[in-house]
Design brief:
The structure holds two protein chains of two kinds. Helices cover 28% and strands 29% of the residues of chain A. Chain A is of the alpha/beta class. In chain A, the strands form two sheets. Chain A has a six-stranded mixed beta sheet. Chain A has a three-stranded antiparallel beta sheet with strand order 2-1-4, covered by helices on one side.
Chain lengths: 210, 288
């Protein structure tokens, strides 16, 4: 296949996975093009979590290939923070991880998500919504070319929810590849493409035009 | 060099900050060490207990309460460092994984944890030695501190190992407590008739127990037994390291960290809305 890895985007080919005799993924193919905002929905137990673990590099598929082109960002569904560290300390830690010269970009994201005032707070004392904002910021702060977001807006109030979609659209318009995974097909009109994971296979959802 | 030092320093600082915010552990350090060792000293009879010290071959008859106090100090430091490292590992597993997959060098994270463990063990060992010296006078206080330090390191590494493989917090706590209790109780001649058994040589704190007993009641140096304890630490740390590397590895073919934009990138800015036709600026990066 031509592949997108030379530029950006993500290619997924024939991904299979099973837990013992229980087959979860039966051959998932997916191509995420640069400058696209796409979604995957599926009911509980459809295999979304397994697929996401494979796409993010946490789990090796039984068969199949996943290729990312360019910088990769992943926002896990369950908030992954260190409760003993402050928001600022999280940013400094990931600044080093991503090798960023400064935190201006992260601060812009914080500003857009509306939690700049919490920089000195320990993650353990933040509200669920603010923790999720930090969770998303850590995935975005290096301006990834491929961005995988797992239920990214859980805990957001309506205003933040709207700003999140605005941010996602701006990233798409800037040429980034954004994949949002959710168990509910909310706001499908904001997506360029929507897949439904069902029976271990990924199919186009009729609700969204290409 | 600056690249490595900055990451090591940052990770070490945050590891220590995390331990410092573990208030229960701080209370344990401050209260549990003097409480346990003092109770052991005061409550146990001071009747001499005959024992053969493997480390020197000497036949010793230390007072029972002093011998139990040493055992109590070892028990205290092993529980504290084991608990602190288990707690940090258990709660930080997924965060470490996220950091490593984001590109934080794993070797720096590991070295930071080892450094934090070393500092914690040194502080608790010095504290326990000072408390011991208030009650009675060990023959070699520095050797006692070194023995306690080595036991603290070993159990800290065991705590990391337990934190990596066990699924529930209570399982880890039970594992640490039971390991320490079995390990030390079997070696105590006051409480165990099998303290002279060759099997004792394979227990995790055998080297530290021998060295600390020599420190208390002999003037002989016991470098070999200190080395045995450090070998236990090295083995436990190696297992913990392998677990850490396995836990934090990425299955993606090229790894998640593709080369980022160079340091000459334009100033960082969020992309503007489409109709503003703004350039696609990216975050600045630094070079290693």
């Amino acid at each position: 296949m031509a592949g997108l890895v030379g530029m950006s985007g993500m290619d997924v080919e024939g991904v299979h996975h099973a837990y013992g005799r229980r087959v979860v993924l039966r051959g998932v193919d997916l191509r995420l093009r640069p400058g696209s905002l796409c979604g995957i929905v599926g009911e509980n137990g459809a295999g979304k979590s397994t697929l996401l673990r494979i796409l993010s590099g946490e789990l090796r598929p039984a068969r199949g290939v996943v290729r990312h082109g360019g910088r990769f960002g992943y926002c896990p569904q369950h908030v992954v923070l260190n409760d003993a560290l402050t928001v600022r300390q999280h940013l400094r830690f990931f600044q080093r991880a991503y090798r960023l010269a400064d935190l201006r970009y992260a601060e812009e994201i914080m500003d857009m998500l509306g939690f700049t005032g919490y920089a000195g707070e320990q993650a353990g004392v933040l509200s669920g919504g603010t923790r999720q904002k930090l969770n998303v910021t850590l995935a975005l702060m290096h301006d990834p070319q491929v961005l995988l977001l797992d239920e990214p807006y859980q805990g957001f109030d309506w205003d933040t929810y709207q700003r999140f979609w605005d941010l996602a659209a701006r990233l798409r318009d800037a040429g980034r590849s954004v994949l949002v995974v959710s168990h509910l097909a909310y706001d499908t009109g904001r997506l360029d493409k929507l897949w439904r994971l069902d029976g271990g296979l990924l199919g186009r959802d009729g609700a969204v035009a290409a | 060099m600056r690249f490595h030092l900055s990451r090591f320093t940052l990770a070490t600082g945050f590891a220590l900050a995390e331990h410092g915010r573990n208030r229960f552990a701080m209370v344990l350090v401050i209260l549990f060490v003097p409480l346990w060792t003092t109770l052991a000293y005061l409550a146990m009879p001071d009747t001499p207990a005959a024992l053969q010290l493997h480390a020197t071959g000497e036949r010793l008859t230390p007072r029972g309460n002093e011998l139990t106090e040493i055992s109590g100090a070892l028990n205290a430091i092993t529980l504290i460092t084991g608990f602190m490292m288990f707690s940090a590992t258990f709660s930080g597993n997924r965060f470490d994984r996220r950091l490593a997959m984001a590109g934080y060098p794993r070797v720096h994270l590991v070295l930071a944890k080892v450094t934090a463990l070393g500092l914690i063990s040194a502080v608790v060992a010095a504290y326990a030695t000072a408390v011991t010296c208030l009650a009675w006078s060990p023959r070699q206080p520095l050797l006692l501190a070194a023995a306690l330090f080595s036991a603290g390191l070993t159990y800290g590494a065991l705590g990391v190992g337990f934190g990596s493989v066990l699924r529930r917090e209570v399982e880890g706590m039970f594992a640490i407590v039971m390991t320490s209790v079995i390990d030390l109780a079997l070696q105590n001649p006051i409480s165990s008739s099998g303290a002279d058994s060759p099997v004792m040589r394979f227990l995790p704190s055998y080297g530290a127990m021998q060295a600390s007993t020599a420190a208390g009641f002999s003037t002989s140096a016991v470098p070999r037994h200190l080395a045995i304890e450090f070998a236990w630490f090295a083995a436990a740390a190696l297992v913990a390291l392998l677990g850490f590397c396995r836990r934090t590895r990425s299955t993606l073919p090229a790894g998640p960290q593709s080369p980022g934009p160079g340091p000459d990138s334009p100033a960082a800015a969020l992309p503007a809305p489409r109709r503003a036709a703004a350039p696609t600026a990216t975050a600045d990066t630094e070079t290693p």
